[in-house]
Structures are given as structure tokens and as C-alpha cells.
Amino acid sequence: MGNNLAGRALRALTLSLTGLVLLTSPLAGAQPAPVQTPQAQAPQNQRQAPQRNIGVASLSEANAALFRKAQPATFRLEHRSITDSNTPDGIGTGFFITKDGLALTAYHVVEGARVLSARTLSGERYPVEVVGFDAQADLAVVQVKASRNVPFLPLAASTPKVGQLALAIGNSRGQLLQPKQGRLLRLEVAADRADFPSGTLELDAPLAPGDSGGPILSESGEVIGVVSYIRLDDRERLRSYAIPVGSQNALLQELRAGTKRDVPALGITASNVLANIRFLPEAFPKLGLGPKPGAIFDGLAPNGPAARAGLRPVVPISEGDEDTPPQLRGDVITALNGKTVRSFEELVARVREHKVGETVKLTVQRGNQTVEISVQLEARAQVAF
């Protein structure tokens, strides 16, 4: 029965890979973020949350008053890759923490943006500059160049408690700065992926792409967190995660002082379909990738670290059909500095054990051959796709 299940799974993967060959274009995400790279609108491959606890009508009178008081201190954050574009490449949320326009958002909202602007509730637009960031923590301090003093939100002076109100303000579902209500479920949550921050707050507020970077408010109107990502738990319930912030937050003080801390990158990306091969280690030889499972990739940054070192992305050489797997050709990374790598996510974790500028040795499987390749890691923001 196990073999039949594996066979059906491989056939399903075959069909997915055929679709990959026919339909996808080169990946444009920053590196080395794997499958669910949080771009400016947060992970988008999650199912939509039910339309409950969304909008002012869903709030109690007290929470509606809390929202209306906080809303003017929030803004829609738009980023563009070119200066003359009228259409933003990505949309997120931010909020003011000082009257002179200093603000907080999630780092992935501003990552790689050449032109940033803030649209306030009153419809005004202001240019935005990044002051400091920590890519692993997914937190950024930005300066909104407002023409006047702005309303701002106070940061929490104490640690939040499980069960308390978690009121988010964001720009998802095509709405401008609307509330989403939930409860705080857990503190100090460990991320199950290397590219997501750890130590987060877990919420049941129904957040969605566009809410990233927005505030999570307590009953007293203080900010307890910054929206980072969403995912489904093991019971397929939507859960939202926020980076905890408070008035005594040491990292926040560093970022306000201008610290810019990036994560190391190889300059490769993997599509969802390729990364999901990790669930089928027996698929590697059947797909022509060699005997061992490992990290495979199909995006390679031009003149990035991996490209300069001669790594080869996976490419299709035959499509296959329902009964015959497609055949692929490309490198499989099976170890980094001697530590086993079984998936793209594990490769990201291994890379992030090192610092920008360090040289690592990759064990690479090319068909039935094994080669050792040295790669010098670069800052992710410097690896252009």
C-alpha cells in the first residue's frame, strides 16, 4: 500500500512538474528565501480566511473606538521598482511611532524596493526611506517624509498575555487601513522555516496579503507586535504571526540608530513544485537527479555567488506523462560544510548559520557524480534577480 501511495504521489508530482515546465517564468524573488518567500504582501499561497472579524462592523463599540483612534497613525506602504511607475509592485502596511514620521513595518515589505511611498488615511502621499532593518527578524524602521507632524502609536510597556485582544490594521483585500480582530494565542513561537522570524506572537486574527508590517494593538491601544506572516497550522486553521515590539525593545533601538543587518545568500531560488520534492526523496533518481535527495533550485541570480561558482539550476529535458516521470538535469546540493542538506529549506537554515562574506563548501550531486564547490556568501539585498 505504501508503494502505491508513493507512486500516486510521484505521478501527481510529475503532472505538477509538467505544469512548471509549461507555465512558470524565471523567479524574481530575493535569495535565499525558499518556496513561500514573503514578498511585500506576505505569503500568498495560503487559503483565504473566512470573512469574519474583518471590518468595523465586526467590532464591539469599544474596539471600534480603539480602531478609529489608531487608524490615522497607520498608512499604506507602496513600493515600486522604477521611479515613473504608477502601479505599485507591492503593498504593505506601516505605522508611525514618532510625531516626526519615524515608522515601523516588516522588512520584507521594503526589501529590494527602489521607490517607497506612504499613503495616509487622508489620502496624502509621502516619500519613504529605510533607516534600519534586521532581515532575519523581519523588522524595519523607516522615515516617512511628511510635511507636518503626524499622529503616532505608543509601543507596549509590558509583555502581552495569552488570550488578550489582538487588533490589526492593514491593507488586505483591496481595502485601505481596515481592522481585523482576533486573540493572542501564544508567545515566543519558534518558526518552522529558516526564512521566517522566530520568537513571534501567534494570533487567530484573519490576516491576508497586504497586512504585513501593520500594527497589532492591545485593548489599551498600545502596539504589541508588527505583522510578519501567515500560515496554516496542522489542523489547517489560519494563523497569523507578529514580531513582538515594545518601548524597551533593544533591537528597535538598534534599528532607529541605523543598523542594517542582512542575511547571507547563495543567489538561488526554488519554486513551490521543486521544493515539494523533499516529501518524495525516492523521486530524485526517478527524475534523473541522482541517487541522493537534497536542495534543488531553478532560479539563479545573474553574477550572484552561486552563478559565479558555476552551480547549475534544474531544467527539464523531457516532460514525461501520467505514467512516466519527467527528466530533469541540474545540481542537487546534498551538504554544506559537511552538514547534510535534504531540502531547500534545510539549505537556507545551513546558510544562515554563517555570516555575509564567509566562504562555504557545497557538496553537489550532478547526476551520478559528486563535486565540491566553494561559494562566498553575499548579503541577500545585494543579490539581484
Explain how this protein is built:
The longest helix is centred in the first third of the chain and has 22 residues, at 2-23. A six-stranded antiparallel β-barrel has the order 1-2-3-6-5-4. Strands 7-8-9-12-11-10 form a six-stranded antiparallel beta barrel. The protein has two domains: 2-32 and 264-382, PDZ domain (Pdz3 Domain, Roll), CATH 2.30.42; 36-259, Thrombin, subunit H, CATH 2.40.10. It contains eight helices and 23 strands. The protein is an alpha+beta fold and 385 residues long. Strand 19 (331-336) and strand 20 form a beta hairpin. Belongs to the peptidase S1C family.
In short:
With 385 residues, this protein is of the alpha+beta class. The protein is built from eight helices and 23 strands.
Outline type:
elongated
Radius of gyration: 22 Å
How many DSSP H or I helices?
8
Q: How many β-strand stretches?
A: 23
**CATH top level class name of the largest domain:** Mainly Beta
Q: In the residues, how many domains can be counted? A: 2
CATH architecture of the largest domain, by name, is: Beta Barrel
Can you give the helix content as a percent range?
10-25%
Structural class: alpha+beta
CATH topology of the largest domain: Thrombin, subunit H
Our measurement of the CA-to-CA distance between the termini, rounded to an integer number of angstroms, reads: 44 Å
Instruction: Give me the side-by-side strand order of the main sheet.
Output: 1-2-3-6-5-4
pLDDT < 50 runs, ≥5 residues = 1-9, 12-50
Task: Summarize model confidence as the mean pLDDT.
Answer: 83
Biggest beta-sheet profile: 6 strands, antiparallel, barrel
SS strand fraction: 25-35%
